[in-house]
Amino acid sequence: MKRKVVLCLAALAVIVGAAALGVTGWMVFQPGPYAFATGKPVPLSAYQGPAPTGVPVELAGADPAMRGAYVAAMADCQACHTAPGGKPFAGGRAFVLPFGTIYTPNLTPDPETGIGNWTDAQFLNAVHRGVAPDGSHYYPAFPYPSYTMLSDEDVLAIKAHLFSLLPVKQANRPNTFGFPYNQRWLMAIWSALFNPDERFRPVPEQSPEWNRGAYLVEAAGHCGECHTPRNLMQALDQRAKFGGATAEGWTAYNISADKVSGIGDWSAEELAAYLSTGHAHGRGVASGPMGEAVELSLSQLTKADIGAIVTYLKSVPAVKGDLPALAGPAPATPQLAGLDNPVGKRIFEGNCASCHAWTGAGAAREEAQLTGVRAVNDPGGANVALMVLHGSGAPTPHRPHMPGFGNAYSNDEIAAVTNYVTARFGARSSTLTAADIAALREAN
Ligand code: HEC
Ligand code: HEC
Ligand code: HEC
């Protein structure tokens, strides 16, 4: 009898152990970011096609400063390494995570507070492996598992660009992580599991344009860092590649080929317009972190490079999401229950309709169209609420501006107008509460 119990316990232990290993293995042994593509990736040196790395052919003859600036824009290092209203690349931008806040460091060449004393090897180690000059490890809030695919030449071109900037003296702020998250050595284990530490490998069976797009999207543009969901260990879940995730409180939508929840029915022209200008007719505007990616990175790229990104994006397999089909430019049946919302209605009539039109079609500017737009058709409502809170951010010369109402309205009022907008113009009403708005204020 005793023996039987021991045997049963042993069997149970084996099953539990195997299950735990299985789950861990499932998370650790991920397909690569472009394993979906037919063909066998080869090392860059063995690839016969035109170089997928570096600057596009038009700029091959440009001076090194210009090439460095282009590669830095491709990788969009500036967005994260600049505080709101702060000097470019001087760091200090806060990222609020569930276990504390982390601040980006100063990347200007100031020798004391920036990276002015760093060698090429130290810089490569940081960007490819997430290892600091003192041997400690960075948190993956610095997306080095994507940047590890950048070629050495491109990383060093970025370094040269950074070293050409005026040094800014601004001390780095330590993160506020508590135990055990403040144990940087744990990140050594994390990166051993989740950072392949491998440069981009082109796929000869795919077109040169596709390979350039793969490099721009996966290595430089790190689109998946925002658009791919994460597993329990905070690594990108490549099995749901581009299936949608959250970035600083904003919803980074499904950009796989799914026709309902994703971008499967966007035309190549619409995608190119959205990525290069932040707006595609009838598809809405790029706001929040996506607005920054357009402003600082994508809008700086050549037409051919945007075309390559679109070619690659269109090849990413569909991931089924749970977003409803878009209600279209003239929603036939506004959600009547959601419209029984006098506070939301009053605010929309008083403060939104002048620019967005009573029909949601946009009054003065086509960018202000609310119908047919993903954010308005997202029953989560976060991006609409964040637009009301912050508006379109600092005014820029090439984009129309929307003011923020975060100081003018209470959390209740912002929830009400968001729920009204999604009910009236979207596929399904959001059900945000004042507490949700408070949480969005915290996250952003
Ligand atoms: C998504 C935000 C994000 C982007 C994009 C980003 N970084 Fe960072 N970076 C961080 C964070 C956060 C840290 C701090 C990590 C830590 O403290 O563990 C960091 C740290 C660094 C460091 C270490 C500096 C030091 O003083 O120790 C370097 C170097 C760096 N980043 C370079 C880059 C370069 C080059 C790019 C573009 C190719 C880039 N970063 C893009 C968030 C980002
Ligand atoms: C820092 C996070 C971040 C990065 C990096 C990022 N995105 Fe986004 N993206 C977002 C967010 C957030 C939205 C939603 C914006 C909105 O609602 O206005 C979005 C929206 C989009 C949309 C529109 C989707 C829709 O249904 O309306 C496309 C297309 C897109 N991103 C493509 C890309 C591509 C391609 C890249 C890489 C080159 C990229 N994004 C990089 C955060 C990001
Ligand atoms: C002064 C004019 C103005 C007012 C007032 C205004 N908006 Fe906007 N709104 C705009 C413009 C212009 C855009 C496009 C911004 C851009 O191009 O980045 C926009 C964008 C938006 C978006 C994003 C649409 C998308 O494509 O993703 C939402 C949601 C939105 N506004 C909701 C509201 C609500 C709700 C109110 C009232 C509380 C409001 N707006 C008040 C001008 C305005």
UniProtKB/TrEMBL annotation:
<feature type="domain" description="Cytochrome c">
    <location>
        <begin position="339"/>
        <end position="425"/>
    </location>
</feature>
<protein>
    <submittedName>
        <fullName>C-type cytochrome</fullName>
    </submittedName>
</protein>
<keyword id="KW-0408">Iron</keyword>
<dbReference type="InterPro" id="IPR009056">
    <property type="entry name" value="Cyt_c-like_dom"/>
</dbReference>
<keyword id="KW-0677">Repeat</keyword>
<keyword id="KW-0732">Signal</keyword>
<keyword id="KW-0349">Heme</keyword>
<keyword id="KW-0479">Metal-binding</keyword>
<feature type="domain" description="Cytochrome c">
    <location>
        <begin position="208"/>
        <end position="317"/>
    </location>
</feature>
<keyword id="KW-1003">Cell membrane</keyword>
<dbReference type="InterPro" id="IPR051459">
    <property type="entry name" value="Cytochrome_c-type_DH"/>
</dbReference>
<dbReference type="InterPro" id="IPR036909">
    <property type="entry name" value="Cyt_c-like_dom_sf"/>
</dbReference>
<dbReference type="Pfam" id="PF00034">
    <property type="entry name" value="Cytochrom_C"/>
</dbReference>
<dbReference type="InterPro" id="IPR014353">
    <property type="entry name" value="Membr-bd_ADH_cyt_c"/>
</dbReference>
<keyword id="KW-0472">Membrane</keyword>
<feature type="domain" description="Cytochrome c">
    <location>
        <begin position="63"/>
        <end position="166"/>
    </location>
</feature>
